[in-house]
Design a protein that fits this description.
Elements (H helix, E strand, L loop, with lengths): L3 E9 L9 E2 L9 E7 L4 E6 L3 E2 L2 E2 L3 E4 L4 E3 L15 E7 L2 E6 L3 E2 L2 E2 L3 E4 L4 E2 L9 E7 L2 E6 L3 E2 L2 E2 L3 E4 L4 E3 L8 E7 L2 E9 L5 E7 L4 E2 L11 E8 L2 E7 L11 E4 L4 E3 L4 E2 L5 E7 L2 E6 L3 E2 L2 E2 L3 E4 L4 E3 L8 E7 L2 E6 L3 E2 L2 E2 L3 E4 L7 E10 L7 E4 L6 E6 L6 E8 L4 E8 L4 E3 L6 E9 L2 E9 L1
Amino acid sequence: MNRHSIFLIVVFSPLMSLAQHWNSLQKGLNNAVNVLYTDSSTELLFVGGRFSYVDSMKIRGIAVWDGEQWDSLGGGIDNHYQSYPQNVFTICRYHNKLYVGGGFTKAGDIFTKYVATWDGQKWDSISMRFNGSVNHIMVYEDTLYMCGSFDSVGSLNSNSIIRYDGVNWTSIDFPNVGPVYSMQFYQDDLYVVGVFDDSSGNLHRISKWDHHNWSNIGEGILGSLADPSCFALYDDKLVVGGIFKKSDGNAGNNLQHWDGTNWLDLGGGTGGQNGRVWDMFSVGNYLWTGGTFSSAGNIPADKIARWDGNQWCGLGSIFNNSITSVTFYDDTLYIGGGFWIIDEDTLNYIAKWMGGDFVDTCSIVSGILQSIPNNINYAVHPNPASDYLYISFEFPQSTKIFVTITNLTGQKFVAETITAATPVIDISTLSSCIYFISIQTENGSVMQKFIKQ
């Protein structure tokens, strides 16, 4: 009797193609990156965060990369502090100036809270004072929008959102109280995410402004611990990323998209002990996601994954900390975050991808099909692992399975036959490292990377 099911075919690239595909940007930085901004006007990459040194040079909070070398921006951010500056969260060009937002109080020699401008030569303040941090700045139809944790700008009462047309600052009467993390226009409406209360004390995570009124989006983003933090436009839909669960009534795990009427899942979303998505970037046919997740669409994808509308692909690398910003500069993928080690190599908080079209693991969503011979439906967990690896199969318990474990150079450490009834591998004697587990049955074979802690 044939079994019909929805499942994933897992495709693994050959071991020989797995190599170091990330390059450092000279010596990198000495602390985390929050934002990468590709400036098409100057063809430069601007980097913001909470660092105080870049490539051993004293550069605070914000730096610029021209593809070959680093440079500072006029003394940087919070140079009156002895330790790290406060965060730079957002960078955006508007009317021949860069607008920089965050939690800082000084830019260059100018004392300016939370927002500053850079004209290519010097820093300046703006005419209005914010009373809280600025989390995101964007431009839409020649108007500058800012959101954050403020409730007044100059003499204006403006909960969390303000706009500027080059002459005047105006509030758009956001009715809720609380931080707004990110904004995106979709079908000419402004969408915002954050954690904010309405006048009745009801907690919201997402809201929409149609240039006249604010409203909820479907059932919103549900869950007492839900924390959406970023947007992207992909395939004519609005994608929301963050941390939220399907089990709380959402369409997806940590990722879902809005088509103007309904919330929809995005290929199974992301998972792991902390499956959060911190940032997304859409380019060509791909949506790139970065975060703290360890899987995407039920395939291994540590901290970064690529969605093409049909399948998720991971890049096969292992990061020691999160990716918080993803962008493309000079047609190359750049990432920044809290990591400083990738695949046991030191790349301090920022890196660029040199692997071309290489992907390590991809999932192909097959839909409702008959089970296909010569493919194995399985899962290896936990990953990372300490003492034991457990392998889950959809085979009769008597099925014999041959398992081998090798390191990056192909040295074999485990070679044994198990059954689906006792799918446990003792790895307690292995050194902490990256390994590959190969699983073979009469139906075929697969290989997966895992970390021994």
